[in-house]
Write a structure and sequence with these properties.
Pfam families: DHDPS (PF00701). This is 4-hydroxy-2-oxoglutarate aldolase, mitochondrial. The chain is built from eleven helices and eight strands. By secondary structure, it is of the alpha/beta class. Strands 7-6-5-4-3-2-1-8 form an eight-stranded parallel β-sheet.
Length: 326
């Protein structure tokens, strides 16, 4: 591995939502963005992902992306715990050309990001053969100032589902350091985690409802939107499992799984509302960028009821950590 390429540490990473104000322009609420990132770092998350799918990256301008990375870097630097690396991962979600992906990677690095998270281009899915996809990821990795993490998420990538052979070939590239599996394919996780690629390659799940499966098969954590809602619970599952306390980890994981299902059913609208509700943020903080509508009242009620258990656990852990206001 080149000297300038840092391996991606194992852990729990939170893909943060993006907060907008309620003006006609729906400008970024950077104050709440920093407050939220600071809270996540203080809760023990190993890093945050900005401009991911949960962060509505496809709605953001180039300048807004820079502002979000800059704000996250400042916030996490203030609050990261001694045993947490406090890393910033920048999504290049929605980049449809190699040139654009490199441009966004350069911007992210200049603002302090440590890694980029890259989806396959998918507007023209037909020509995206394994050879084309391998060329895209390797070209971006070669040109990016910071290491690359593969983002496998067929649901937002025109159905492109990168197979184990392609992912294994990419894992051998010295500047490609890991993968986020939002394909939710534990078999792929197992196959990749079992291989030696000649340099560190970190395999992360894309949710916490199968975090124990990820860890049991040799994966090393998750990038999970649930950490916006219950960061301490997510980190506790990771820590308990790695301490060999598997039965205790399962108790937490079972509660998380129920809550995560409700976020998945609610989509981005339900997720944003859940984050607002869980953290006591103003109601307007749940606004998604137009033309996305408001979260339906029925979805709010469903998410609230299904997240009751995980929020109780989060409150217990916060109290045990001496956090005020819980």
């Amino acid at each position: 591995m080149p000297a300038d390429v840092a391996p991606l540490p194992a852990g729990i990473y939170c893909p943060v939502i993006t907060f907008f104000d309620d003006s006609a322009a729906q400008a970024l609420d950077l104050k709440l963005h920093e407050q939220h990132c600071e809270m996540l770092a203080a809760a023990g998350c190993h890093g945050v992902v900005v401009m991911g799918s949960t962060g509505e990256a496809v709605t953001l301008s180039r300048e807004e992306r820079k502002q979000l990375v800059r704000g996250a870097k400042a916030a996490v630097s203030r609050a990261a715990l001694p045993n947490s690396p406090g890393l910033i991962i920048a999504g290049t979600v929605g980049a449809q050309s190699t040139q654009q992906a490199i441009e966004l990677a350069v911007d992210a690095a200049a603002e302090g990001a440590d890694y980029i998270l890259v989806l396959p281009p998918s507007y023209y899915p037909g020509p995206m053969t394994n050879d084309a996809l391998q060329g895209f990821f390797e070209d971006v990795a070669d040109a990016s100032p910071i290491p690359l993490i593969i983002y496998s998420y067929p649901a937002v990538s025109g159905g492109i589902n990168m197979d184990t052979d392609l992912l294994g070939a990419l894992a051998r590239h010295p500047r490609i350091v890991g993968i986020k599996h939002t394909d939710h394919d534990v078999g792929k996780i197992a196959r990749l985690a079992a291989q030696d690629f000649g340099s560190p390659f970190t395999v992360l799940g894309g949710a916490t409802d199968y975090i124990l499966g990820t860890l049991a098969y040799g994966g090393e954590g998750a990038i999970t939107g649930m950490a916006n809602v219950a960061p301490r619970v997510c980190v506790e599952i990771f820590n308990l499992y790695n301490a060999g306390k598997h039965a205790e980890a399962l108790k937490y994981a079972s509660v998380v799984s129920r809550a995560e299902w409700s976020l998945g059913r609610g989509g981005i609208l339900g997720t944003k509302w859940a984050v607002t509700y869980a953290n006591g943020y103003p109601e307007k903080s749940a606004l998604a960028r137009k033309p996305l509508p408001l979260c339906p009242e029925a979805a709010k009620a469903y998410v609230r009821s299904e997240c009751e258990g995980v929020l109780a656990l989060e409150k217990e852990l916060a109290k045990a950590a001496g956090v005020n206001g819980v």
